[in-house]
Amino acid sequence: MKKTYVLDTNVLIQAPYALKCFEDNRIVLPLAVLEELDSLKSTEGEAGRNARQAIRYLESLRLRGNLLEGVALSNGGSLRLEVNCVEVQLPKGFPDHKNDNRILKVCLGLGEKERPVILVTKDIVVRLKAQMLGIEAEDFTTEQAPVTEEQYTGRCEVYVSEKKFENFKKKPISSDDLYQVDESGERLSVALVPNQFVILRADQSVKKTQLGRFDGKHVVPLKYQRKKPYGVSPRNVGQKFLQEALLTGPEEAPLVIVKGMAGTAKTFYTLAVGLDAMLEREEPVYRRILISRPNAQFDDDIGFLPGDEGEKIAPLLRPVIDNLELLVDQDEKERYADERSLSGKIEELFDRGYIAAQALNFIRGRSVTKTYLIIDEAQNLTPKQAKGIITRAGLGTKIILLGDPQQIDNPLLDERTNGLSYAAEKMKGSPLCYQITMAPEECERSALAMDAVTRM
Known about the structure:
The protein has 456 residues and is α/β, with parallel strands linked by helices.
C-alpha cells in the first residue's frame, strides 16, 4: 500500500536528496515548505547550499510536468506541491501563521482523503504537536545509525585454544579458530569486521589476554603497542587500540573514527600522535596538523564575526589548547609555574605552521593533502558534512573524527542521526578505516571524572 509522506523543511535542509528516498510512495511538499526554502536560498553556509540544491531538483521536476498535480519520480513514486488545506481548523493555541502549523494543517487535510499520511520532520517539538493532533509523524530515518547499544564499537573479546594463543606472536590466528560463549556456555562462531580490534583470551586460562587486529583474514598482533608517541604511554586497552589506529600510516588507514565519553583522552592522544609525526621524525609524516570543530551556534555565520579566521574560531580551540598544555610540558609539578612560557610554546606551534585551525565551512571544496586532519566534537556534524569532510582526503592525509554521540549540541541531531555515528556505520568494514569506541571505565581525566561518567 502506497503511503503519503509530508516533508518538513528541516528534512531538506539537512538532506536535500531526501526527495529521492521514499521509494514508490507519494511525497507532498506544503506551500509553507516552498516558502521557507525560498527564504533560505540566499543564506550562507550549508543551509543555503542545501536549500538551493532542493530548489534546483524541484525545478527539474517542474520542467517535466505540473507539480500541483504531481510528477512521477524515477523510483516509481511521485512528488507534488500542496497549496490547499488552508481552511482546515486547528485547536486553539495553534496559531495559523506559523509555518509548522501550516504543515500540520496539510497533514490533517490530506488525512481526510488519503491514508496513511505520515509527517516526516527533524523537529522533535513538531512531532509532539503532530501526536497531539492524531497525525502520524517520524524522523527522517534514511541516515540513521542503529540504536546506541547496537552500534559498531570496533572491538570485541574472543576465545582461542591455548596452543594458538601461545603462538600468536609468531603465527596469526584464522578467524575460524575463534569463538565466543553465550550465557549458557555454548560456543558461538565469530563474524569479525576488517580492522576490528580483538582481545584474545586463552580458553584454558581466561585471565591471559593478548591484543590484535583482524586484517580481513587473520587476527594479527598490534604493531605499535609498545610505542610512546610524544612520550605518551597507553594506559588501558582502549588507548592501545587507539594508538594502533593513529600510528598506522595514512596510506593504510587514512580514516580513523573514535567515539567515547569525556575524559577518555580521545583528543589528547590524537594530538600526541600528530605532534610525534610532525616533530619527532627525521622526515615529518605530514605537512601540518589541521584542527576543526563544528559549532552548532555559528558555523554558518562565522564570516560575519570580527577578526581574521584564527580570531573567529579561537573560542572553539580552548579544549585543544588545554590538551596541548599537557603535551608540550609533561612535568605536572612545573607545568604551570610559568604560564607565559607555556603559552609561548603553544603559540610557537601555530606560528611555525605545525598546527593550524580552520572553520569547518572553509574545509568544504578543498582537497587536503599530506595533512593530519582532526575533527573534534564530530558528533555535531550532519551526515552530509561528515561525507563532505571524508571526501576531502587527498594523498598522504589522515582524517580523525572524534566525538561523543551522547553530547550533541545541534538541535536537529541525536545519537542515531549525527554525522559521527552515520560515518561510523557507513565506513564499518572499510579496509581504509579503523574505528574504536572508548569504554566508560577507560576515563583517565580524574577520579571525579571517572566517577561522574559511571554515575551520571
